[in-house]
Amino acid sequence: MSIPAVGRCTPVQIAILMLAGYDLSEPNPTFIADEQARLAAMQDGHRDLVAMTCQDYGFDLILWRRYLIAYGEAHGYTHPYAFKSVDKAIERAIATAESNQGGTSMSRTKPITYLKGDATAPGTIGNKIICHVCNDIGGWGKGFVVAISKKWPQPEAAYRAWYRDRNDNDFALGGVQLVQVEPELWVANMIGQHGIKREGSKPPIRYEAIEVALKQVAEEAMTHSANIHMPRIGCGLAGGTWDKIEPIILRTLCDKGIEVFVYDFV
After folding, report:
1. Partner of 169 at 20 to 30 A CA spacing, among 6, 14, 31, 120?
2. Cβ 218 vs Cβ 227: under 8 Å
3. Structural domains of the chain sorted by starting position, each given as residue range(s) with its CATH number in brackets
4. What pTM, to 2 d.p., does this model score?
5. Exposed, middle or buried by CB within 10 Å (0-12, 13-18, 19+), for 58?
C-alpha cells in the first residue's frame, strides 16, 4: 500500500504509523487533529501490530520501535520500501510525545501496560487501585470476584451491604465503591453489568456505565496518586469485548496521565 507522506509501505509500517496517530491521507507526516479520531487510529494500529507480531507493548512507541527494529526483517518493518521515512516519522512522534507537555491527548496519554499474571497481586510501588466490574442485582460469587474474596473479605462485605441498603445510597449502574484492603491498596467495586443474563442478543455489559464508573475511579486515583490495576474488565461474565473497553480506559484514565496495568491470568 502506498502512503502519500512516506511512499509504499508494508502492513507493519502502516500499523505503527497508525499507532503514532498519523493521518495517512496527508501528503506530509501530520498527526490526526481530531482527538477521538486519533485515539481510534491508535487503537487500530495497536490491534494490527499485536495481530501481526504476537507481541503487545500497549501504546508505547519506544518499545514497539525497539522490537520492530530488532525483528524487523521477520515482520517487514525494516523492509526498504519506506523504512527510512517511516522510522523518521516514528522518531518524530516519540520526540513530540516526550517534549509536548500538556499538549494534545497523544502526548498526555499513557499507554496501557499489559502483563501476564494476577491482577490481585500488583507489584508497583505506592498507592494502587484494583478495578473490577460488578452486576446491579447483588450477585457476587463467580468470575474475578472469587479471586478478590480469597484475598480480602472487605470488598464482598462492602458490596453486599451497598446492595442491601440500595434504597438509601448510590448503588446503581455507573456507581463506584472504593474499599481499602491494605495500607496502600484499594479495590474499586464498579457497577457496570445489568443482571447476569443476556437480554436476547444483548449481553449484561453496559459500556456507558463502565465509562461513568471509570471517570470516578480516575478522580480517586488522582486524589490518592494511585495507579490502576485490573483484569480485562467486562470481558468475562459480563460479555463485553476488549475493543470497546480499551478506548474507554484510554479516555477516562490514560488520557489523564494515570498508569494502567491490565493482566491476563496465566
Report:
1. 120
2. no
3. 2-104 (no CATH), 112-264 (3.40.220.10)
4. 0.63
5. buried
